[in-house]
From TrEMBL:
Domain named YNCE-like beta-propeller: residues: 90-191
Annotated organism of origin: Sphingomonas echinoides
Secretion signal, residue range per the UniProt entry: 1-23
Pfam family for this entry, one: YNCE
Assigned keywords, A-Z: Signal
SUPFAM superfamilies, sorted: C-terminal (heme d1) domain of cytochrome cd1-nitrite reductase
Coiled-coil intervals, chain numbering: none
Record's protein name: YncE family protein
Length: 334
């Protein structure tokens, strides 16, 4: 774990807004947990907040949050999502070979390999936690997996460039489309795609979350906006300024907050969901590269994977990661 002196280098700003929006609690980057080198994508904690799972290039990084112990499990080919399942197993999307792996998080033993579509990326569970829905970005399909049998039961054709997804209260599956700048809709009961929701002013939406009390979606856009969509009318209602380069929307239902880590600007934006309108209420200075993350719902602590990078190449493209610099920022309510 990095020295606590890091705390002084990062200060959270919780800004009350006009119009009655409540200010968020103050958040600070309190520590950093070192981990193995390599790329990463989505992160999740288990329901009781005891372990953090980060999908990595060739494995899954597991952090025991009580002891700080870090380990690597599984064998995947460009992992994108690591989703804890009821009963203790872990579902991992393996992007390069088009499979989903089911692992024992304690031992790393693989109990099932399920062939899905091309480039499986995000994966979520349905509200009953009986099925997993896997977004295949290149194929433009959604693979439905029965968790009791670890078998593929259905493939739903949508559109290519699928990103993160969320279920609404009416059972509709909503999926960001990074290339079309819209949110796809899927009637999972019938297994068919419906009309898309246009997101004018939102470029390359990736992260997505559903605010159940207000029946609305919050999508993170690459051009420094958060798009708010009313589910009942299927319309974009507002665009909120955030940092550049987000890749996740992390929902804290208990505290009625949404967090958007923005990797290009190195900030964590905080949105309040407590009012009739979503309001920006705070910004935490994090690090360039911190674009995804996970929440411990019990404590409100956030975990943001990051690393240090060399300058971006002159012709464009992703900058290379400096060896020995991967770590997970620990962002706590002050």
């Amino acid at each position: 774990m990095r020295p606590q002196s890091l705390l002084a280098a990062f200060v959270a700003l919780a800004l009350p807004l006009a119009g009655g929006a409540a200010a968020a609690p103050r958040y600070t980057v309190a520590a950093a947990i070192a981990g193995p080198d390599g790329p990463w994508d989505y992160a999740r904690t288990d329901d009781d907040g005891t372990h953090l799972y980060v999908a990595r290039g060739a494995s899954v990084t597991v952090v025991d949050l009580a002891t700080g112990k870090v380990s690597s499990i599984g064998n995947v080919q460009r992992g994108h999502a690591a989703v804890p399942l009821p009963g203790g197993a872990l579902l991992v999307t393996s992007g390069t070979d088009g499979t989903v792996r089911v692992l024992d998080p304690a031992t790393g033993t693989e109990s099932a390999t399920i062939t899905v579509g091309k480039k499986p990326d995000a994966a979520i569970l349905d509200p009953t936690k009986t099925h997993a829905y896997v977004m295949n970005a290149t194929s433009g399909t959604v693979s439905v997996i029965d968790l009791a049998t670890a078998k593929l039961t259905q493939t739903i054709t949508v559109k290519p460039a699928l990103e993160y997804a969320a279920f609404a209260a009416d059972g509709t599956l909503f999926i960001n489309n990074e290339e079309a700048n819209e949110i796809e809709t899927v009637d999972v009961a019938r297994g068919v795609a419906g009309s898309a929701i246009a997101l004018p002013g939102c470029d390359a939406p990736t992260g997505l979350a559903y605010d159940r009390p207000h029946n609305r979606l919050i999508a993170a856009c690459a051009n420094g906006k958060a798009a708010v969509v009313d589910v009942a009318t299927r319309t974009l209602t507002s665009l909120i300024a955030i940092g550049a380069g987000p890749d996740a929307v992390i929902l804290d239902e208990v505290r009625q907050l949404a967090f958007i880590p923005c990797g290009k600007d190195g900030v964590l934006d905080i949105l309040s969901l407590s009012g009739a309108a979503v309001a920006h209420v705070g910004t935490v200075k994090t690090e360039v590269g911190a674009r995804t993350g996970a929440l411990d719902p019990k404590t409100g602590t956030l975990y943001l994977p990051s690393a240090k990078f060399v300058p971006a190449p002159a012709g464009g493209g992703r900058p290379a990661m400096l060896p020995g610099t991967f770590h997970i920022l620990v962002v706590r309510p002050a």
